[in-house]
Amino acid sequence: MQRKPFAPIMAAMALVACLCTMTLGAVKLPGFFNDHMVLQRQMPIAVWGWADPGEMVEVTLGDDTVKTTANQDGQWKVALPKREAGGPLTLSIVSPSGKITINDVLVGEVWLCSGQSNMEWTVNRSNNAQAEIAAATDDQIRHIKIPRVPSPSPREDISAPWQVCSPDTAGNFTAAGYFMAVKLRKELNVPIGLINSSWGGTRIEPWTPPVGFEMVPALKWYVEWINKRTPTNPAYRKGIEDYIAKANQWIDSAEKALKSNQAVAPMPAFPDDLKQSTNHQDPTMLYNGMIHALVGYSMRGAIWYQGESNHGEGMMYYEKTKALVEGWRKLWGIGDFPYYYVQIAPYQYGNEPPHVLAEFWEAQAACEQIPNTGMVVINDIATLNNIHPPNKQDVGDRLARLALHRTYGREDVVDSGPTFKAMKIEGDSLRITFDNTAGGLTWRDGKPGPYFQIIGEGAGWQTADAKIDGDSVILTSPKVKKPAAMRFAWHKLAEPNLVNGAGLPTSAFRAGEVPKPDFLSQIDDAAGYKLVYDVDLAKLPNISYTQDNAKAAGKFDRVAYLLELQPGNDAARYVWVSMKAFTDDASKLGVPTAASGAFFAQKVDAMTVSSNVDSIKAGANLPGNIEFWPNNYGTPNVKAVPGADNAVYDTGDQPAEPRDGYGCMQIHNYPAKQTIMAFNNWKAGSGADLGIGNSEGKTRDWTFNGNAGSYAYKRLRIFVRPAN
Prior knowledge:
With about 725 residues, the protein is α+β, with helices and mostly antiparallel strands. Among the domains are: about 235-275, no CATH class; about 420-510, Sandwich (Immunoglobulin-like), CATH 2.60.40; about 520-720, no CATH class. Helices cover about 20% and strands about 30% of the residues. A hairpin with a 2-residue loop joins strand 6 and strand 7 (about 100-115). The radius of gyration is 30 Å and the shape is flat. The N and C termini lie far apart (about 65 Å).
């Protein structure tokens, strides 16, 4: 094999990797094992570190001693016996190469505190800060703040000091965690340790370990993204090998060109999907840098306050929470430890439709389906013009209530506000029954307020008259004679007032079946067509066919698509477009996923278009083109579609790798330079692109609009006309 210039480069990289390996010598502990630390009671106590390979290490805590030997990589780990709460104790680690002594060690309850800015929010920025700091004299509360360090690969060590609670230190503690600890100290009378690993403005994905994404089928895209950036993964190695081969081919051609006095073409660019992450918001980056080194440290559970940076994703957040929680639990190996989290507060979020945040609250509430989890509702203690409500005292109190009731078995502690149990239609009224009423429902301010809405046939959403009846609320409206569904606090600024006997609030929720708009009967061209697919777009990112009649479609000569969208409380919109069949395989007419094998980038004939959207050019025998593929795509007009712009996402774009990428399902009237309908990026769930007509801004075909979550109702149906 001819030696290439890449060979010394790769050798140098290998040398650097060796030099970056931890230098061993004196016995060493992780940098968060230090004076004033708190260890978890009633669990084996894990202690680990590094020493010379084969070196004997002796670990002593109080009157317990365990010995072990460092392995060939210089790593060692022991499990000390369980202990009840107490201290202070001394932890000592002795080996032939040195001794480490850690003083003032307590044994009690340890909680991991993670999330974004509302978890990182400190005591000194909370309500009554001066008084709270002056009262912070309990030295049995300890806190450690993990440094903000992202990493593309797992870090094995983190350095940070444990701090003893005092007026000099408590001001910089996580406020939500601290006020939880204050209540737990009062009720349990044991030391409390808070491990604060949080970072303002961060999404949930960077906190999630790779194994978490692997455990949730809906997040397959993230697994592929991670694998291509992980040097030990075959996908990464294959990508690098392919790139080296291309680079070597370029070197050969460059040498020949140079010898022939010809211009040398640019070297192939290094593939973006193989580059190591540098953005702290990328998947796994904060798990690698701020959580991984902690894995194995015995703890009771985790509290989480995050979501503002993911709040436009609807039910996709439930899938991502599953990945975070189940990933952490699998790696820690201490079972389904408690995971208690805070539902984010009402906030304006610019010009965003009011229901987007309500749908996110619904997704957060759904996360309680994950075993051993609990949610704190704070819609009664928000600050509408401040995304950081300064009342963290009640947040901490409610987190502590969850722990006391569900983790520590305190049956006398009420840990939740009223939760929806059932809806029953009673004539022209709806009866909504609740659990967790704790002695009875009541209005916090003595009057119902406008927070319940109902809907029925022939009437849109109407504010309901609400009357408490025991553990139920009766809803009526003179404008709704046949109520079918209800919703509560379904607005981003809602501060509802329904509480239980303990004064705890009710979260936003909805129930019943909203009457669906159906324009099919109004479309003359639809006569004689047969339904093949009915796609429930509310279930994205899953492509959910509520009807799939592809196998029974038979022969057909035309196909049609009906897209119906209802934005928020506005009137529903539709577009119908039929055309001469462009395939004889009905299974290729649905959403063009990689699994379906559908791929069409071509003109279509004899379109008939009908719509209630004024901007749509309706009519018969219209020319058009379709762009149906699962791929990524760019703006170049490689098909030479008349009127398409090479620099704009519009009626003529170019598919690209990867095949299982962004995804595009678009129908265009190219002479009118108009997108008739578009459905893109379905993997993004509520962040998918959906639209009728041309979109505004930098694209014409809804690419990058991420607006699916703005629609209260969204449905796609696909038809064929049987051939004579």
